[in-house]
Amino acid sequence: MENRYLLSLDGGGVRELATVIFLAKLEKELGKPLHEQFDFFMGTSAGAITALALSVVKMSGADLVEFWSEKNLDRILEASLWDSQLGLMQTNPKYEGDGKKQVFTEYFGNLKLGDARGEVAVMSYDIEERKPLLLTSYNDSNISIVDAGIATSAAPIYFPTAKVGNRYLIDGGIVANNPVLHGYAEIKKLYPESNIKTLSVGTGLNKRALRGKASQKWGLFGWLMHDLFGLMLESSLDHEIAEEIIGKDYVRVNSPLGKINRRLDNNNKRNLENIRKMGESWWEEFGASALNLMK
Asked: Could you give the residue ranges of the DSSP H alpha helices within the chain?
């Protein structure tokens, strides 16, 4: 039975830097471009941006690390001064999105989903239809990857809702921050007779305990202050189901956050350095398993 390879990438904001550190090391050890190694790329939010950069732009691992550099993160996370001072009382999205669009346009140009090498799918959510939406290279070939990237990463509160054609889309992380099961289902539709080998890379797990008794009195602000979005993005169940379904042909790369700030947009130097270290530690822990999967 022929092997086909799926790469699935979680959402996680600035923590995507750890993912690309790991992927760059994987590519170096394989001695082969990642866009040639994998047959299907699946991603949500920041992970979807990396999936698009690999499959459509055909970026190298080193290119990915440069793309997710401190300089580009500063441009993507260019906040409105007025709303940044308001904090939880902000009335508009924290980021206007102009910087993100500029970075995407600079690196992605006029490429479309249909230009992908292999196949790619990114997770988004249609707020008018109230259902998850996959934007794919095989069903949505004429959509630009700039538009697809903006839509899959349009996290509520952080970025404005994206308009793609006649649809209004937001970050797919609200339904599948870990999109591995969706990716597996899609690649099996395309290659039903193939054996699917799956590499799934997370963006760290927040394991800080919340105060159960105190939470009984939390309202909206209380839950927002205590990582409501982190709870919504919890992906361990998807991992456990994937482990049961895929079995030995599945490798999951992830770990607790440790010293890393849980906020998806914390791009200060110390936090980014800790994120880099997490990516390097992943290689030490999971690198051999990932390489073995590629055989």
From this structure: 16-30, 34-37, 46-55, 61-67, 70-76, 81-86, 98-108, 145-152, 173-176, 180-190, 212-215, 220-225, 228-232, 236-246, 269-293
Q: Quick one: angle between helices 46-55 and 145-152, nearest 10?
A: 160
Q: State the pLDDT confidence band at 207, using cuts at 50, 70 and 90.
A: low
Q: Exposure string (b/e) for 110-139, b if CB count within 10 Å is 16 or more? A: ebbbbbbbbbbbbbbbebeeeeebbbbbee
Tokens standing for 225? Answer: 């202050």
How many whole angstroms separate alpha carbon 279 and alpha carbon 283? Answer: 7
**pLDDT averaged over the chain?**
89
Question: How high is the pLDDT of residue 215?
Answer: 59
* Each residue's pLDDT tens digit, 161-196: 999 999 999 999 988 999 999 999 999 999 999 999
Contacts of 120 (CB under 8 A, 6+ apart): 40, 41, 42, 43, 51, 52, 55, 56, 113, 136, 137
258 within 8 A of 291, measured Cβ to Cβ: no
DSSP state of 79: B
Over residues 102-120, the mean pLDDT reads 96
Task: Kindly compute the dihedral angle of the four CA atoms of residues 113, 116, 118, 123, in this order, to the nearest 10 degrees.
Answer: -40
